[in-house]
Amino acid sequence: QADADPKGTNWPRLQRLVDRALTRLDQQLSTAAKPLLMVYPGLLARYDRLNFLDRLREKVGRRDGVPSLWLLVPGDDQAQIEGKTIPLIGPGQKARIPESWLENKHRGALKK
What we know:
mainly alpha, two-stranded antiparallel ribbon, globular
């Protein structure tokens, strides 16, 4: 019910719960020994927590941080989640995956 009504009295409580969950997630991801792939990040936009990606980005490549982080989102031009722009520092922080690769055509050509 709290999620269904962003103007309701339970919305602030839900936001506190989201913050608690993100704190725990941040702790878990910070100890990752392998590259990370994040999928389905829509809830970060829904609860206005895209700044979580900023915090993670600051930890990428550091000795005490995350080796690497990939965020998979659909789209052709601007990197967005639920209509909200993903915070990027520069163009090198995004890559377009070609449709042919998604359709696995590069492997299909090898089969005889």
